[in-house]
Amino acid sequence: QVQVVESGGGLAQPGGSLRLSCAASGIIFSAYAMGWYRQAPGKRRELVAGITSGGSTNYADSMKGRFIISRDNAKSTVYLQMNRLKPEDTAVYYCIAKPSNGLAGYWGQGTQVTVSS
User: Fold this and answer.
1) 20-54: string of b/e by CB count within 10 Å (b at 16+)?
2) For residue 30, is pLDDT > 90?
């Protein structure tokens, strides 16, 4: 019954922007930390950004200043605003909903982001 669904991926030019969305259902959304990870071919899955249930944010160093994570609890949705995109941002971006009790989180299916001229 729990669903985590990403959307908003696609093709962007270097220097451009995209906004990803992640809608979660079947959970008490406001009680969950949310996060974005990404995985490029041949690379490890890496943290992009996270946001706690209280709204505190954290970012990987390479994303800091370019990406913004936010949440709208009324819509049970977390967003990732990606600005000044670079070709190396090309990856599948995954959303995770993580409960505060430390149990395994719920992953979305991923959405492809391609940055290319």
Assistant:
1) bbbbbeebebeebbbbbbbeeeeeeeeebbbbebe
2) yes
